[in-house]
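Email to the structure team, subject: MTMRD protein model.

Hi all, the expression group asked for a predicted structure before they design truncation constructs. Nothing fancy, just the C-alpha cells so they can compare against earlier work. One-line instruction: predict MTMRD protein, return C-alpha cells.
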Amino acid sequence: DKEVRAIFLRLFAQLFQGYRSCLQLIRIHAEPVIHFHKAAFLGQRGLIENDFLTKVLNGMAFAGFVSERGPPFRTCDLFDELVAFEVERIKAEEGNPPKMIKHVRELAEQLFKNENPNPHIAFQKVPRPTEGSHLRVHILPFPRINEGRVQELLQEGLARSQGAPPATRGDKKCVVPAGPPVGTFICS
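Reply from the structure team: attached below.
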C-alpha cells in the first residue's frame, strides 16, 4: 500500500514540479486569494498542447490542491520536500530502475513512519466472524450504557492525561520551499 502511494507521490511531484513559481497571491479581497497561473506553468514547461495535464490543472482536485498548498507559510510535508529538493534525483533515476525502486521504498518507509509515529503500539486484530454467523435471525439488542460508569472512565482518562506529556506532535509551520523554477525543467 505504501509503495503504491510512494509511486503516486513521485508521479505528482514530477507533474507539479515548479508549481509554486506560478502561484499568485491576490490581495484585493478582505482575505488573500491564491491563484495558479496555468498558462505560464504549461508554457514554461512546453506542455501547452498536453491534454492530460491541461485537464488535471482544470479539475476541482487541483483547485483544492492549490488552495490547500498555496499559502507560503504552512506546515510542510513529504510532498513539499520531494518537489523542492528531490527533483534532480527523480530525473536522474528515470533510466535506472533499481535506484528508482530504492527511492520508492525509502518514500514508502517515510510514509509508514508518518502514519505510525509509535511503532511499539501493537495493532489489535479483529476476529473473523464464526461460521454461519450471517444466518442468525435473532440479533441481541445493544446493551444499555451505564452513564455513571462512562463518566468514571472519562474522569480517570482525564486525570491520567493531565499529568502525561501531549501525545500528538505539534506541526511546526514554516516557509514552504519553492524549489527550482519551472523554466529549468525539460519534460519528456
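The beta strands are 23-26, 33-36, 73-75, 173-175. The helical segments are 2-16, 38-45, 51-58, 60-69, 78-85, 87-92, 97-115, 147-163. Ping us if the truncation boundaries need rechecking.
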